[in-house]
Amino acid sequence: MPELTWVATDLKTGLLLADLPDLMVDSVKASLGRYESASAALPLPTAPEHWQRATLEGASVLNLLSDGMPVWGGMVTEPNLSESDTVDLSMATLEAYLDRRYVGDETFVGVGQNVIVKTLVEKYAVIGENGGVPFRVQFTTAGNGALRDRTYMDADDKTLYSVLSDLMGVDGGPEWTVGWEWQHNPERITPVLYVGDRIGRAVPAGLGPASTFEMPGCVSSFVLARSYANGRGANSVMAVSTASADVRPQSPRQLSTDTTRPTFEYRYTPSTSITAVSTLTDHAVAALAILANGSAVIALSAEVGSAPVLGVDWSIGDDIGFSIGGLEDDPRVRYVTTLSGADIFTDVFHDILGFGTPPIVTAVKVNTEGRDTVPAFPGGLVGIARNIGWEMTLSDTPMVTPTLLSATLKGA
Amino acid sequence: MANPGSVGSAMPPAEDAQPRKVADLERAVRELAPSVARSFAPVFEAINAQIAQMNAIQVEQAAQLVSLNAAVALQVQPASGHSGVASGTLTSTPSEITRCTFTVPAGYTRAQVFGTVFVSVYNTGANADNIRAYLDINGAYSSTPTINSLVSFSGAGLGSSYAATLTGLTSGSTFYVRGIVYNQTGNANQYNGANVDATVLFLR
Predict the structure, then answer these.
(1) Distance between CA atoms of A278 and B187, rounded to whole angstroms?
(2) Which of A141, A143, A302, A369 has the largest CB neighbor count within 10 A?
(3) Contact check, Cβ <8 Å, A268/B11
(4) Considering only A72-76, A287-291, A306-310, A360-364, which range has the smallest mean pLDDT?
(5) How far apart are CA B69 and CA B51, in angstroms?
(6) Do the Cβ atoms of A37 and A90 come closer than 8 Å?
(7) Are A203 and A209 in contact (CB under 8 A)?
(8) Stretch A393-403: mean pLDDT
């Protein structure tokens, strides 16, 4: 099992501030293209000398290391001090910092979407009047990405987070997430904003996934959450913009081919001030792809010690294999013994006198079809799906729970 | 703003669903405000353009009103004339004794003219005579002149008036109002005199 440890780093430089061996964190989460929050408690009797600086809100990051490799980080947003001997801390992943910075006047015409993201992050997150956060932008796919036209104005009051979410929400838009890396001389842990046409590895054609979560196996529990609630399922999607005078740009309705459900409409405004209908259509197409069959995700919980290793065997965005349930023999009633070709007389003669035809004893398997180990999935659920986020609970027995998007199920 | 097309949005709701929703709503409201404000810009521009247009029309109308008032004031232009003569000589045939001349102001084409001629004559002869007079307005006059008896070695007065409307006038041209006087014998005397008075209303 990988060793999990905590360190505090400086938000502006990534420089190490303190080791936090006794930091207590229930769980941490990461998702593609959005921030997550977490809470922690730092016992003061064993806290490092500079614990106040190490937990200074808006100035420090608490990084989770797995065998020394940073796998998660959250900036401290709220320390709550009380009469107790612990400090309760609220944290948010670095995507939340992007929601604290605003984009100024920018115009991109025919610029690769990855370059747009890189430019915006480097201009509006890495630097600032009081400095910024040292994001390094890393393209995860070759090239600059699809060419886009985008205009942003300072007066739009749009945060960088909002703009990047908007970009990611279009059909074929750039996916992005924040990871961490060690840097040396001096030693520091700094954030990396990964952006590309895709985050994570797809399964190569003809090959299996690099990681598979199985039940029975490392997976101890799972949840398949489905929803067709408003905003999580629809088969007629329209993206609309804010109006300009008496004209409101809107996309044509994007319809799914599913005829099982009656019409469920969904209209939304992906971003303000979109004037190009084609951009709205791109948004609607992307939304329909996820909403058409309703939101459905599979969360597979596995013990960290036995599961494929996060950051080594799999990462956020990867295609991950899963196998839930299936048929197994019933260990309680596996066989029954049957006799054939016998009757009481031949039995007696054979047993006593030692001649005649003995009865034929046969062991017959009763449950020839086997037993479903997970009744919710008759015959089992096996396939490959995309990991869109994960959670790690950090109890005595750490558990990791990748969340797989069922819309991307393959072979199930 | 909502972005259901982003795969991250498919993450199932967790404990932080409500704070996240509030944050999303706050962000949406913050972004909507300037967007809505800007969406009204064309409306305000149109209204401002209309106000500017109305102001221009108002200025133009004010100028037109001044022009109209001036035009109204110029519809009629009065004029008057007087011409007198003393020691006049009378003739036995109709002859002009004195005249007023008027120049047509710019922009006027018609004139309503009323005039009088008054003659004072002394008969120096031994025989009775009579005196006749009429007013000639630019060639228009009454065909029946006024007449008065003139006793020998005595004086008498005679007046005649006439009115006419002149048309087809051109700016700068002139017309006259004159008195025509004559008697049977014709004479000259220091006491003979005549006055022509005329009032003119120029019309456009």
Answers:
(1) 111
(2) A302
(3) no
(4) A360-364
(5) 26
(6) yes
(7) yes
(8) 92
Span B123-148, pLDDT tens digits? 888 888 889 999 999 999 988 899 99
**What is the amino acid identity at position B50?**
Q
For the stretch B11-53, pLDDT in tens is: 888 888 899 999 999 999 999 888 888 888 888 889 999 999 9
What is the overall mean pLDDT for chain A?
Answer: 89
What is the side-by-side strand order in the sheet with A254-255? A254-255, A236-239, A265-268
Nearest to B178, CA basis, from B192, B160, B190, B165? B160
What angle do helix axes B17-39 and B41-73 make, rounded to 10 degrees? Answer: 20
Chain B residue numbers with beta carbons less than 8 Å from the beta carbon of A222 are: none
Using a CB-CB cut-off of 8 Å, the residues of chain A touching B3 are 165-166, 168-169, 270, 283, 287
How far does chain A reach from its first CA to its final CA, in angstroms? Answer: 30
**Angle between helix A113-124 and A160-168 (nearest 10):** 170
Q: Of the candidates B3, B40, B46, which has its C-beta nearest A166's C-beta?
A: B3
Strand stretches in A229-379, DSSP E: 236-239, 254-255, 265-268, 295-303, 319-324, 327-328, 335-340, 360-365, 371-372
pLDDT band, residue A412 (cuts 50/70/90): very low
Dist CA A411 CA A289 (whole Å): 18
DSSP for B145-198, written as a single string:
-EEEEE-TT-EEEEEEEEEEEE-S--TT-EEEEEEEEEESS--B-TT-EEEEEE
At A28, is the secondary structure helix, strand, or coil? strand
* Nearest alpha-carbon partner for A158 in A92, A195, A78, A103: A103
Instruction: Report whether B188 contacts B89 (CB < 8 A).
Output: yes
The radius of gyration computed from the CA coordinates of chain B, to the nearest angstrom, equals 43
* Percent of chain A whose predicted confidence (pLDDT) is above 90: 70
The SS3 of residue A273 is coil
What pLDDT was estimated at residue A379? Answer: 79
Average pLDDT over residues A319-334: 77
- Asked if B6 lies within 8 A of A169 by C-beta distance, the reply is yes
- A with B: how many residue pairs have Cβ under 8 Å apart? 128
Please report the beta strands in B34-73, taking only residues with DSSP state E, as ranges in sequence order.
none
Q: What is the DSSP letter of A173?
A: P
Asked if the ipTM is above 0.90, the reply is: no
**B34:A155 CB<8 A:** yes
Q: Provide the token pair at B89.
A: 């000589």
Q: Give Dmax (Cα) for chain B.
A: 144
In the block, residue with structure tokens 């149109």: B46
Element (H, E) at A219: strand A219-227
Q: What is the band of A355 on the pLDDT scale with cuts at 50, 70, 90?
A: low
For residue A410, pLDDT beyond 50: no
Question: Is this prediction's pTM over 0.80?
Answer: no
